[in-house]
Amino acid sequence: GCQSSGGGSQTLTAGTAPGFPPFEMKRDGELVGFDVSLLEAVVAKSDYELSGWDELEFKSLIPALNNGNVDVVAAGMTINEKREEAIDFSDPYYSSNQAIVTREAGSFSPSSLDDLDGALVGAQKGTTGESVITEQLVETGTIEASAYKAYGNYVLAVEDLLNENVDAIVIDVPVANSFVGDRPITTAFVYETGEQFGFGIQSGNEQLASALNGGLTAVRDDGTYQELTAKWFGQ
Ligand code: ARG
Known about the structure:
- The chain is α/β, with parallel strands linked by helices and 235 residues long.
- The protein has two domains: 3-93 and 198-233, D-Maltodextrin-Binding Protein, domain 2, CATH 3.40.190; 96-195, Periplasmic binding protein-like II (D-Maltodextrin-Binding Protein, domain 2).
- The chain has helices at 34-44, 61-66, 81-84, 128-138, 154-162, 173-182, 206-221, 224-233; strands at 3-4, 10-16, 25-27, 30-32, 49-55, 72-73, 87-89, 94-103, 121-124, 148-151, 168-172, 185-197, 200-202.
- A hairpin with a 2-residue loop joins strand 3 and strand 4.
- The structure holds arginine.
- Arginine is lined by residues 16-17, 20, 23-24, 58, 75-78, 124, 127-128, 172, 195.
- One of its GO terms (molecular function) is ligand-gated monoatomic ion channel activity.
- Pfam families: SBP_bac_3.
């Protein structure tokens, strides 16, 4: 949790869920990615200090904030009303939609959610990709509830797609782009969700919210944000 150190600055433990390139992933055993670099740059603009990173499953991040095990979440987490009942968010720092990803070599090439009729579809537990499946495919009767396969992370989902255990996975577009680049899979179509990622914090922690928002403004103003997007997204 937040701890005051002698100098009056407070240390923060950050939480994330690796396996979500290029936002957070393990490279030679080290946690790296856009979220990691961005949060570090943002916190460096504030009176806070980052003491370290906890790696958790995505679905455990909001509980970890609420029980005080982490102070800030940087995990490509979409800001939405349901989550805002439990936690607060910083200002948005990245936009995303959902990609429907299939095997490149397969004959299955859906171009709309309706085309997923009868397909086996995967996503990471607790994500907005999962919500697309439950709300737009299961609840509409396009697929059976049992045709949804939930994974602890997207690396496992992509492996299962390659192993032909699912026909498609629903995953944030920038992450799909990263996986598609080095595996024989392809984005069949994009489902527009208009999501915005924010850093998650405990409800009511206005001091931290304004520190993070100030830091986000500062890294946009001094070019750091641009450098980081160029580095991690090549744009
Ligand atoms: N943007 C999606 C969501 O908020 C997926 C985030 C998954 N993040 C991760 N680090 N695995 O649900």
